[in-house]
Amino acid sequence: MLPAVAQGAIGITCRDGDQAMLDFLAPLNHPETKTCVDCERSFLARLDGSCRTPIAGQACIEDGVLHFRGLVAKPDGSVVFETGKSGKPADALAIGTDAGTELKEKMGDNFFAV
């Protein structure tokens, strides 16, 4: 079972341009987790997903390679499409976007309509 995008990651936001706060928060960042969440969120964004759409995705980095798995399902669970992509962690956004594009083509228009 894949979790919803970014499940388990803690995010902290602050005002744009608040360098003092950004400097204060910087030590709390875990670069590997941020890379994985960025990949997952680019997947979700490509699918125009929200917390109300049955979209799951999970990225992890193993031995210097980012691995991503994602899926979309009809709201009633009758149809499921899955994908998997791997590549360099530096390409996290492109990997997530590519995975989203692949599933968007498979699912067609109005996939999430009940």
Automatic annotation (TrEMBL):
**Gene3D superfamilies on file:** Porphobilinogen deaminase, C-terminal domain
Necessary cofactors: dipyrromethane
Q: Which Pfam families does the entry mention?
A: Porphobil_deamC
Domain (Porphobilinogen deaminase C-terminal): give its ranges.
Answer: 35-104
According to its UniProt record, this protein's enzyme class is: transferase
Quick one: a GO cellular component term?
A: cytoplasm
Q: What is its EC number?
A: 2.5.1.61
Q: Which InterPro entries match?
A: HemC (IPR000860), Porphobilin_deaminase_cofac_BS (IPR022419), Porphobilinogen_deaminase_C (IPR022418), Porphobilinogen_deaminase_C_sf (IPR036803)
Biological process (GO), any one: protoporphyrinogen IX biosynthetic process
User: Keywords for this entry?
Assistant: Porphyrin biosynthesis, Transferase
- Gene Ontology MF terms in the entry: hydroxymethylbilane synthase activity
Please give the function described in this protein's UniProt entry: Tetrapolymerization of the monopyrrole PBG into the hydroxymethylbilane pre-uroporphyrinogen in several discrete steps.
> What's the name of the protein?
hydroxymethylbilane synthase
The record lists the organism as: Chondrus crispus (Carrageen Irish moss)
Organism lineage = Eukaryota, Rhodophyta, Florideophyceae, Rhodymeniophycidae, Gigartinales
